[in-house]
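Predicting holo structure, V47 bound.
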Amino acid sequence: MIPQFEDAQLFPILEKVRAGERLSEADGLALYRSADLLAIGYMANLVRERMHGNVTFFNVNRHINPTDVCVASCKLCAFGKKARDPKAYTMSLEEVWHRAGLGLTEAVTEFHIVGGLHPELTVDWYAEMLAGLKQRFPKVHLKAFTMVEIAYFAKRFKMPIVEVLKRFKEAGMDSLPGGGAEIFSERVRRIICDHKIDGNEWLEVARAAHKMGLKSNCTMLYGHVENEEDRVDHLLRLRSLQDDTGGFVTYIPLAFHPDNTPLEHIPKTTGFADLKNIAIARLMLDNIPHIKAYWIMMTPKIAQIAQRFGADDIDGTVVEERIYHDAGAETSQGMRRSELLRLIRAAGREPVERDTAYNRVERQENAFEIFV
Ligand code: V47
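Done. Tokens:
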């Protein structure tokens, strides 16, 4: 069957997609330059259903942000604060462990832990935080620290990156989240996150983690001052590292939220752009198993439609999100498990609760509600 495409230039890409062939840089650019969202979504959905059938994955997780104190001053960020800012916070270890336990914690399978680049917290403090969480919640997977935090710790603690990773792995870190990658283009990084590690360093920390057997996610921040070439370059660099290590589990495109950042003049992304970024990722990243439509960032409505545009994951209950809400996100800070199930089913997909490694979690529907 030949589907109706408005943009005839996409037919050669359709042939490649049908044959399971890898798409090129030129294909990536053609996709970004096309307005035929339905054609792009159709192709991404073919790939998504070939890989995951009718399933949409979600998890029951909780975000923990131990501190918002950050030595960096990234223009993209509304979360980080200077230590002298009266609104800045740093939790005590007891507070981290207490907050982790709020609500019905036996339901949670993952803690997602990221924070600012704090100038004073020590390697022992972080290791104790992880060990304390593991001791109190031995069944919960600790997905902790972006590549940017790991690189900063290495510099500040004067330890090689592999030693930092090793220390945290021994303390209980199970994997790493995908944040901090932003966009690898140096020209763009100079504008949105000057002084942060560069794209190559981000990739090298990920490589070191993967080599040690730690899996991670990966992200791309879009919708600010980047162009189509920057986005395709970013995807290809992730794909290339994945060819080497196989360590990325999930890719999450992150839409820039401008409120309360120095880049507030930039308009918010559109639903069209959000869906296109999901679909093009599914088409270009043929070696990364999962594409996540993060509902906090895209809104539950777009994340739901994204399940027909290439995404196979919608993230989880989250419970207490700060990074996007400081930047003006209007979504709620958490979602009940029953609501996730409803959204997924209404998109005609079969919801499957997963743990961080995408093993199925079996439990009785509505046997509990996790919430604070
Ligand atoms: O690293 C910061 C981005 C990331 C803004 O691995 C912003 O499963 C938009 O990485 N507007 C944190 N984006 C979120 C993240 C994430 C989220 C969900 C799941 C996973 C995962 C990872 O958010 C930061 C940065 O790239 N960010 N400020 C902002 N104003």
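The mean pLDDT is 94.
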